[in-house]
Structures are given as structure tokens and as C-alpha cells.
Write a structure and sequence with these properties.
With 170 residues, the chain is an alpha+beta fold. The protein has seven helices and six strands; from the N terminus they run ααββαββαβααβα. A two-stranded antiparallel ribbon has the order 1-2. Strands 3-4 form a two-stranded antiparallel ribbon. α1 packs antiparallel against α7.
Length: 170
């Protein structure tokens, strides 16, 4: 048996490494971004805490977590050699990037405000129900949970280097 017959199949090893790296990065990244919700902030080079809710009418509840729909909407897809992380929640972009929204005051919304007032007895809801305005302009602060993260990239680089070293030693 010649020494060339014992040579490892580097092409197969490389293909397996790429496959494993993409899967690992996909799941690790998804979990990393979902961790922003219990952490109440985003980690890029350092942790950036989210701004508190102004006039908090639901104290004690985590920010961006009423139903956990937004948190659970964080997903990823593999596109060739690229991983795309996203949220399909329609309001994800305004929370992730911040911005200004206009909310129309309708008869249906007034009924809801009255319902909330009778349920909670909080003056806030009564004021909303009695407002003369037909539109509310609301500024949503940036509370990033998806995006480029130096910390995540560093963690993935470290995993990849350790995996390469382990696989080529064996």
C-alpha cells in the first residue's frame, strides 16, 4: 500500500466542513439574535441596552415581548454560501431600526381604549378614548435585535478555527 492511498480525501473533508459551518452558523446566529429579547438589548462589539418604554403602562413586562411573536419570528435561510437572518413579523423593521409611525384614531380604536380603561382604570386609556385627535404620531426608538455583530462573528470564527484544528488532527 502506497502512502498516497492513505491520504485523506481533502475535498470531502472541505465539503463537510462548509456544510457543518453553515448549519452551525445558522443555528448559532438565530439563537444569538433571539437572546436579544431576554437580554433586553443587542450585542455588537459590546452590549447595547434597549431604551425603556416611555410612559410604561405595563411595568414588569420585558420590552418587545408581549406575545413572544417577534422573538419567535427570528429565522435564517441558507442562500448558497450565504446565511440570511430575518423576521417575517410585519413590525420587525420599525422595532429593529426605529422610526416614526402614524396611527389613525378610529371608532374601533376608541372602543378599544374605553375597554382598556374599564378593565384597568388607568387614566391613560380614558385620555386616549377622549382625544380630539384623529391621528397619533409615535416615535419608535431603535431596539435592534437583528444585524451585524462583531461578537457573533468572533464566536463563529473561533468555532471554525477549533473545528478545523480538531478535524485535521484526527
Amino acid at each position: 500500500m502506497s502512502k498516497f492511498e492513505k491520504a485523506p480525501d481533502f475535498n470531502a473533508m472541505g465539503a463537510k466542513l462548509v456544510y457543518d459551518a453553515l448549519r452551525y452558523a445558522g443555528v448559532t446566529g438565530k439563537n444569538f439574535f433571539k437572546d436579544s429579547f431576554p437580554n433586553q438589548g443587542f450585542t455588537d462589539k459590546s452590549f447595547q441596552k434597549w431604551e425603556e418604554r416611555a410612559g410604561d403602562i405595563d411595568p414588569g413586562r420585558r420590552i418587545l415581548t408581549k406575545s413572544a411573536f417577534l422573538e419567535n419570528s427570528v429565522e435564517y435561510e441558507l442562500n448558497g454560501m450565504k446565511i440570511i437572518y430575518f423576521s417575517d413579523a410585519e413590525y420587525a423593521d420599525i422595532h429593529n431600526n426605529g422610526g416614526v409611525i402614524n396611527i389613525r384614531v378610529t371608532e374601533k380604536s376608541r372602543k378599544y381604549f374605553w375597554y382598556m380603561y374599564y378593565k384597568t382604570k388607568k387614566q391613560f386609556w380614558k385620555n386616549m378614548a377622549l382625544t380630539k385627535k384623529d391621528m397619533f404620531t409615535v416615535t419608535i426608538p431603535k431596539r435592534q435585535f437583528l444585524g451585524h455583530s462583531e461578537t457573533l462573528m468572533s464566536n463563529l470564527d473561533e468555532w471554525l478555527l477549533n473545528t478545523i484544528l480538531k478535524r485535521f488532527k484526527s
